[in-house]
């Protein structure tokens, strides 16, 4: 497997940063009998998809006589979407472009040959927009089993994770959030003094996300979370690699016995250290709603004033800031990154695979691949085109319910088309600049590794089902004794073949490391 030079890739990501003004236009187009229909499938949650028809009509109007495409966007909830993608892969459903990701079904569907291999399309000189937006260095970091089976949708190597909170409330009580202790004081203050408001809202499949412990924290101790095997807010498997990056020292998962962790550096060499997230989540559960395991979308809780905080990523700051201004006049947004090294903007500590989390794929049964690539080339051909789907046609003085919303991570995100709005607080601008700077990153030893599941597909299927049974409740800290539940879950996984899976993971990663010598 070719390993991309991280300096080359991050240089591209930085050079691609182009400040630009939002484009605005107006108009609509009538249906065209001779147009070719592209059926696109995405998932949406509350507040992420609104007033899109006018933008689709504007796109069709602008490309009448050139692309001659009618874009038909199908939307559904994430729960329905997972099952629908499997059906699309196994039936003759008319689907030409679908959103997928390793945390949904992408890896397994690639192995089932459900998606087309797309390498050749990026070499087409007639598709200049795609060639500029997805150079070889970028694509090489997003190969699966040696091929390009999805168009990587990302706007930064990392979208800094942290807590969004009501800074106006913190100021009201003279509080400054600078660590977990002060965050707890803020939550306790909300509980006791802000009647009708909950301290924090969380989504069921993410829970507290990367609070308490994140892949970056583990990578600083030479332990790397393996992406795309079990999916969800927290992947199940991690691998230890020797300090020289040449040898597998262990493969572990949550709930393991102590011997699984004993070779790691502190604090991950103990059960409590490796499973810290779940133990902490149980302690912080009192600050979130009792029905959190049922909540598929939590932004409305925060943005409508029912929650004093929520977890998220800094890329949403500008949108959340605007939404709060529209919905709650006087409300002020704050953001606290919960990783010390990021708060301190330390160089070279963000350890990444440079793999995107989100992709656009073309099902094998589509007969419109060339047309789909013409559409994608148009989206990535210019700032104006990309802005149309990113920001819509909205004016600055229209009611919030009439504004345009589209999940950019499912189509438009790309390092060439990044905006850092001028009205952001200085500390937020500084963090955004930090996350685009090439010297902020380092490449992890398992970058580019993708597990071949063929020899362990039965065992993995059972293990995924077991993890899914417990996962959301663990993520939300529901269990009073999470340590006992983790051990129970792990015991069930052992009976389902966990040892065989770990052994195969270790074997494949060692072969991957050896091949790069």
Kindly describe this structure.
The protein starts with 5 loop residues before the first helix and ends with a helix. The strands form four sheets. A five-stranded mixed beta sheet has the order 2-1-3-12-4. Strands 9-5-10 form a three-stranded antiparallel beta sheet. It is α/β, with parallel strands linked by helices and 517 residues long. Strand 7 (237-241) and strand 8 form a beta hairpin. The chain has helices at residues 6-15, 53-62, 78-90, 106-111, 128-133, 136-140, 167-172, 180-193, 215-219, 271-274, 276-284, 299-303, 317-327, 340-343, 369-379, 383-391, 426-436, 457-475, 482-495, 498-515; strands at residues 36-43, 69-76, 97-100, 151-152, 161-166, 223-225, 237-241, 248-253, 309-313, 333-337, 350-352, 359-361, 441-443. The model is unreliable at 1-8 and 17-31 (pLDDT under 50). The relative contact order is 0.19. The protein is globular. Helix 18 packs antiparallel against helix 19 (482-495).
Please outline what is shown here.
This protein is 37% helix and 12% strand. The chain has helices at residues 6-15, 53-62, 78-90, 106-111, 128-133, 136-140, 167-172, 180-193, 215-219, 271-274, 276-284, 299-303, 317-327, 340-343, 369-379, 383-391, 426-436, 457-475, 482-495, 498-515; strands at residues 36-43, 69-76, 97-100, 151-152, 161-166, 223-225, 237-241, 248-253, 309-313, 333-337, 350-352, 359-361, 441-443.
């Amino acid at each position: 497997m070719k390993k991309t030079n991280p300096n080359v890739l991050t240089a591209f990501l930085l050079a691609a940063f182009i400040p630009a003004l939002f484009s605005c236009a107006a108009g609509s187009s009538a249906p065209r009998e001779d147009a070719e229909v592209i059926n696109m499938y995405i998932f949406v949650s509350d507040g992420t998809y609104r007033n899109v028809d006018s933008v689709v009509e504007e796109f069709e109007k602008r490309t009448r006589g050139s692309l001659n495409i009618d874009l038909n966007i199908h939307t559904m909830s994430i729960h329905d979407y997972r099952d629908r993608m499997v059906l699309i892969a196994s039936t003759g459903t008319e689907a030409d472009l679908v959103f997928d990701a390793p945390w949904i079904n992408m890896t397994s569907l690639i192995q089932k040959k459900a998606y087309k291999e797309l390498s050749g399309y990026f070499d087409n000189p007639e598709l200049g927009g795609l060639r500029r937006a997805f150079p070889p260095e970028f694509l090489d970091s997003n190969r699966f089993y040696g091929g390009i089976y999805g168009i990587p949708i990302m706007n930064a190597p990392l979208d800094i994770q942290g807590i969004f909170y009501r800074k106006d409330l913190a100021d009201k009580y003279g509080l400054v959030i600078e660590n977990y202790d002060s965050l707890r004081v803020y939550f306790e203050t909300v509980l006791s003094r802000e009647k009708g408001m909950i301290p924090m809202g969380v989504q069921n499949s993410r829970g507290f996300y990367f609070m308490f412990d994140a892949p970056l924290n583990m990578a600083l101790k030479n332990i790397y979370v393996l992406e795309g095997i079990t999916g969800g807010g927290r992947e199940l498997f991690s691998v230890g690699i020797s300090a020289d990056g040449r040898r597998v020292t262990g493969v572990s998962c949550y709930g393991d016995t102590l011997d699984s962790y004993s070779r790691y550096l502190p604090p991950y060499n103990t059960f409590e250290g490796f499973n810290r997230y779940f133990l902490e989540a149980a302690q912080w559960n009192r600050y979130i709603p009792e029905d959190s395991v049922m909540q598929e979308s939590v932004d409305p809780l925060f943005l409508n004033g029912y929650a004093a905080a929520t977890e998220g990523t800094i890329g949403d700051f500008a949108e959340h800031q605007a939404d709060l201004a529209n919905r709650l006049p006087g409300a002020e947004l704050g953001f606290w990154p919960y990783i010390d090294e990021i708060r301190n903007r330390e160089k070279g500590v963000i350890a990444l695979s440079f793999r995107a989390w989100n992709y656009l794929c073309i099902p094998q049964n589509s007969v419109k691949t060339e047309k789909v690539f013409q559409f994608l080339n148009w989206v990535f051909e210019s700032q104006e085109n990309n802005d149309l789907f990113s920001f819509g046609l909205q004016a600055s003085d229209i009611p919030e319910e009439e504004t345009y919303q589209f999940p950019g991570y499912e189509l438009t995100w790309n390092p060439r088309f990044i905006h850092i709005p001028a009205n952001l607080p200085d500390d937020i601008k500084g963090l955004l600049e930090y996350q685009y700077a090439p010297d902020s990153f380092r490449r992890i030893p398992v970058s580019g590794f993708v597990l071949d599941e063929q020899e362990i597909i039965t065992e993995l299927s059972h293990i995924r089902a077991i993890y899914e049974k417990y996962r959301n409740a663990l993520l939300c800290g529901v269990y009073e004794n999470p340590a006992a539940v983790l051990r129970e879950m792990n015991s069930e996984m052992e009976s389902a073949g966990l040892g065989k899976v770990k052994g195969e993971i270790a074997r494949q990663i060692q072969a991957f490391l050896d091949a790069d010598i």
